[in-house]
Amino acid sequence: MGCKMRKIYLLLFVVAVFFTVNQAWAATASLVELFDGTTYENVEFRVDKSYKVISFKIDGKKKNISFTDISRILDNNGEDVTARYLGKYMKTSQAMQSQSDMTVQKKEDWLGETDPIREKYNKPLWSVAFPISANFSIPAGSYYQGFKAGLGFSGEILISINRNLSLRGTVSKSGMQDDLEEIAPGFRIIDDNLKFNVWKYYISLQFSNGPNWSANKKMGLYGFGGIGAVSHKLTGAAIIQDPATDSMFIIIGSGEGDSKLALTSGFGFVGLLSPSFGVEFGSTIDVIIVGTRQGTAGYDPYGNVQTALLLDFHVGLITFL
Amino acid sequence: MNFWKRTLPLFAVMAILIASGCAKNYRITQELEAPIDRTAIATIGEIVDLLPDDFDEGKKPTAEQIDAFKSHLTAQLRDKEIFGAVAYDEPDAEYVVEGSVLEFKKGSGLVRALIGFGIGSAKVTTELKLIKKAKGPEEQDEVIFAGNFKQTVSDWTESGDKIFERVAKDFVKALKKRMKKLEKEMASGKES
């Protein structure tokens, strides 16, 4: 059996064991006390966070206890470690006492689908939002050979579909710096006024998990994916000189190229400063279908390049309506 | 020999995955110790909210979903003929099924369809108890069977609400299995 196969099997085995064990680990307690007064002393227990139970053996038989029945767990030093094992399921003693008492049991208080309180929580944070940001664009791959990272800006409009989904429209400019030393190695640069900008227009679907001012959730995460068009614009001119012959050459920007089909995806964070204003930062990756082919009419410096990549980091402000 | 060398680890991994997939979807916290009177009347009591305090109010199960859960419990108990009758909100019932929701995620069918791999799954963890009601003031209600039940729907072709139906099935199945075992033990005890 090959070494590669062994590694694959080992990886599969680790994954299988990970799913099987499912968050269970052993711990020891000097005392586990339940709300009904039952106590278990000096037990080695396992916490199953998936099923919200702890389990241990008594007289050779396995015993499961629900998190909701546990009053407290003391470790071997007598320290209360209930919160460490039960986490958010450790309620206040008083609240749990009322739940464990059959006569004062907590009442059902589920809200209906159209309950105004529920609707308030489920209402999208915004109807329309306008993020504006400054971005730092890094080109990658041979299509952008001769150009370096640069600054740009982007403006977006987010139209809410529901609490988590929005339609995202983007107009973005990535300004990049030319690198004449790479384009014309060995030449002396006399003047450089070349400007290379990438204009991007996208329609995306955005998934947001928060933020929600009314739920006191000030930070939110979002991710999006979409499709659009990208155009490249090279303007201005540069003058270079051959040091061997002192001949001068002028490189003139070719203007705006054809729009290219492009795919975009990204993620970011939004932090609320007020119910209608916040800051955001994130990252985007664009895959531009440039589809150049070697041997087509004219000089083709890129060879057989099908896609170009642009990585953006942005930071900006967002206003909600 | 070479074939087995290559395929045996794969079978082992598959066996582990199948075993974990076929594992029980519940942990019994109170095992039934004596058979239940099969002619008794049972009812479905309250399913309360024991979700963490900071759980988003808008993401909790709806009252309609909890009603549907109770209906599934009623239907399953009737279908498996555990009791003589299962009535809804019956104050004179001798047995009552009560519960609480400990974990809930509504999930998204669209996300399950578009992405998959467990993303967008609906899941629920509930604690369910079968309580024998006190017959008089000198007696106390007694939890005779209880467990924590968990279910997940990760298939986009299924509704997320199936989680409640599956939990109800698991609860009644576990109860019936235990009752059968106890009844069998009793029958063999009488014979001997």
CATH class of chain B: Alpha Beta
Q: What is the second-level CATH architecture of the largest domain in chain A? A: Beta Barrel
Question: CATH topology of chain B, anyone?
Answer: Double Stranded RNA Binding Domain
Largest sheet of chain B: 6 strands, mixed
Rg of chain A, alpha carbons: 31 Å
Order of helices and strands of chain B: HEEHEEHEEH
- Could you give the order of the helices and strands of chain A? HEEEEEHHHEEEEHEEEEEEEEE
Distance between the termini of chain A: 62 Å
The general outline of chain B is: flat
CATH class of the largest domain in chain A: Mainly Beta
Number of domains of chain A: 2
Number of strands of chain A: 18
Average pLDDT reading of chain A: 84
Fraction in beta strands of chain A: over 45%
- CATH fold title of the largest domain in chain A: Porin
Alpha carbon gyration radius of chain B: 20 Å
> Number of helical runs of chain B?
4
Task: Determine the structural class of chain B based on helices, strands and strand pairing.
Answer: alpha/beta
**So what's the overall shape of chain A?**
elongated
Q: Architecture of chain B, CATH level 2?
A: 2-Layer Sandwich
